Amino acid sequence: MSELPKLNFPAIRLRARRRGAGVEVWDSLRGIYLVLTPEEWVRQHLIAYLVSHCGVQPMRVVQEFAVALNGQPQRADVVVVDDRAEPLLLAECKAPGIPVGRQTLAQAVRYNSVLNARYIILTNGLRHYCCECRDGEYVQLDGFPNLSGEPSGL
């Protein structure tokens, strides 16, 4: 894991194992080992941050959330659901070497046209953007949404 960059998230502890030529990381939410790609590195950090700093209950985090977009199956990286199991937050994670820009935002907005989540997070682990959907417009926030009433923000 030493070849993966330090991210702009608090450090986390991951359970990892070597498998062939690669590394797998334990995903405690799904209860399985996953190949540790740069994007998975970012996703695991984001989820840990949402749980430890934003008050998200782990059982409300859904990874690779199915989105039917124009009849085509797609998957949102991370979705946090509310008390009624409705999407509250949609997050798109990119590898640290992939810039987060208009294409990433367009992808998230397409997914959100189906999901109708209140918040969208875009991150490559180094740069983070958070928007709130207000009256059909996306307004960029200064930090991550506070989903527990406790202070949060990077």
Q: Summed up, what is this model?
A:
With 154 residues, the chain is of the alpha+beta class. It has a single domain, classed as tt1808, chain A. 19% of the residues lie in helices and 37% in strands.
DSSP strand content: 35-45%
Q: Which fold name corresponds to the CATH topology?
A: tt1808, chain A
Q: Going across the major beta sheet, what is the strand order? A: 4-5-6-7-8-9
Give the helix level as a range of percent: 10-25%
CATH architecture: Alpha-Beta Complex
Quote the distance from N terminus to C terminus: 23 Å
Q: Point out poorly predicted stretches.
A: 149-154
Number of beta strands: 9
Q: What is the level 1 CATH name? A: Alpha Beta
Largest sheet: 6 strands, mixed
- The dominant shape is globular
Mean pLDDT: 89
- Tally the structural domains: 1
H/E series, N to C? EEEHEEEHEEE
Determine Rg (CA atoms, Å): 15 Å
Structural class: alpha+beta
**SS field, number of helical segments:** 2
List its salient traits.
2 helices, alpha+beta, 154 residues, disordered C terminus, 37% strand, single chain, tt1808, chain A, 19% helix
Can you offer a commentary on this structure?
- With 154 residues, this protein is α+β, with helices and mostly antiparallel strands.
- It is 19% helix and 37% strand.
- The chain has two helices and nine strands.
- The chain has helices at residues 38-53, 102-115, and strands at residues 16-19, 22-27, 32-35, 61-69, 72-81, 87-93, 119-123, 128-134, 137-141.
- The strands form two sheets. A six-stranded mixed sheet has the order 4-5-6-7-8-9, with helices on both faces.
- 32% of the residues are buried.
- The model is unreliable at 149-154 (pLDDT under 50).
